[in-house]
Every structure is written in structure tokens, then in C-alpha cells.
Amino acid sequence: MIDIHNHILPGLDDGSKDINTTINYLQLVQASGVKKLVFTPHYMPGFYDSTREKVSAIFKQIIDLKTVHAPDVEFYHSAEVYLNGENIVNDIIKENFFINNSQYVLVENNLNGFTEDLYQLLYQMNRKGMRPILAHPERYMEIKNDPSRADDFLQRDVYLQINTGSILGGYGQQVQNAAFELIDRGWAHFLGSDCHCRSGVYDYPQAVEVIRNEFDDKIATLLSSTFPERMLKNEIIPHFYMVKKTIPKKKSFLEKVLDFFGE
Ligand SMILES: [Fe+2]
Fold first, then answer.
1. What pLDDT does 243 receive?
2. Where are the domains of the chain?
3. How close is the Cα of 81 to the center of ligand 1, in Å?
4. Burial of 183 by CB count in 10 Å (0-12 exposed, 13-18 middle, 19+ buried)?
5. pTM, two decimal places
6. Residue ranges of the chain with per-residue pLDDT less than 70
7. Ligand 1 centre and the CA of 123: distance in Å?
8. Span from the CA of 80 to the centroid of ligand 1 (angstroms)
9. Distance 50 CA to ligand 1 centre (A)
10. Which helix (H) or strand (E) holds 98?
11. Rounded to the nearest whole angstrom, what is the distance from the C-alpha of residue 49 to the centroid of ligand 1?
């Protein structure tokens, strides 16, 4: 299992408040069976100033703790980029927010209503060869009210990352229903904990188990392992992976005879 979205690095955003909290969560991750962790502090100029330089410095301190507290977990760092404003796409390049130097970038937007420039910024990202992943689509007002709206993003070559908390009902019934519907439609690509180190619980494996029970083992593995692994290797992931094939109906003897005579 690979967690591509969390706020476990300390002191950068509204996630882990100090190094002790981070250590506690690294131990929980180690115990959970998650093997790869991509730290994604919020990047929102003016609010969360998680520049590459700042994050790298903290990441170096955390790497030193790995052997003791999370020996079986591999660490990566990137950001959850708040996609808004004319400079943000250039910031992604300047700060190298590409996950493991791939073309994939985790982005978010306003939960209470998408900003007007969102589609234009996603278009700019795609034109520059980036592969945007929208964090927790099921939590945005437009999509939780009408999950079919998520198609707007898939049609724009945007990947979708569902939160473990949404699967487990932590944001309420409507968000949980939306998350299930996205998975059911084959519109979800990744599972992320979006862990902010507040509850004392790291719920990634529980959410995988719920997906396995509600859907099947195949989809649980795709979202928690197969697709994240491909992302880390910068391999292409299909935006639509559940294309239903129409199997041609077998013709009856009479139909075959009529075909033969050109009827
Ligand atoms: Fe987040």
C-alpha cells in the first residue's frame, strides 16, 4: 500500500504540529503495513509557504528518524498545491512539486465552490506535460452534490484521489456516497489518507478493507497499490480504465443462412 497524500511532516501547514506528533504517526504508518509515503504539505502562497527548500530541510530531519520509527516505509516528498492564481503553474515547475520527479502533481481547490480559473489552470498544466491529480474530488461542493460532475475532470485528463476518511464516513454520508459512486463508475485512481495527525488514528488499511468489502479486491489493489506504484515510476495510468466491451451476439443458424444469401 502507498499513501500519496498526507500532512505528516511537522510544522509546515495545518498537519503535524511538531516532531513528536510526526514520530507518533510514522510509527502508526509502520504498523499499518503502508510501505511508501508521499508527504504532501499544503502549498498555498500567502497561507502555507511550503517551498521546496523548506520542505527538503524538514524532510532531511525526518529521514534520520526513519531507521528507528518506520524502517519498512519509503519516504518521498512533494506538495498538495492549491490551484489558483496566475503564477501557480510556474510555481509548480520552479518548486519541482512533481512526485518523485514524475509528471504527476497533487492539486486541490476551494471545497465550497471551484474557483473560476480552475479549468484554465488544469489546461495549462496539461499543455506543459503535467499529469494533475485532484485531491479528494468527493469533498468539493459541486461533486458531492452531483458525482457525475467529476466527468468534467476526467475529460480534461485529470486523475482523481479519494480520501480514506471519505470511505470511512468521516466527512458525512453525502461525501461517503459520492466517494463510493466515483469508485463504482471507475472514476477513482488513488487512495490517500490526507492524514492531518489530529485523530490519533492512521486509517489507510481500514479504508482499503472497506473498498475490498464494498467492491472487490481488484479495485482495492488498483487504488492503493497498482496505480500509485505506476505514478511513482511515471508510467501512464488510463483515465478511464473500466471501459465496458460490447461482446457481439452469436448469430443463429437462420441469421447465418440469411447473411450468406445477402439478405
Ligand atoms: Fe490534504
1. 66
2. 2-260
3. 9
4. buried
5. 0.92
6. 243-249, 262-263
7. 22
8. 6
9. 13
10. none
11. 15
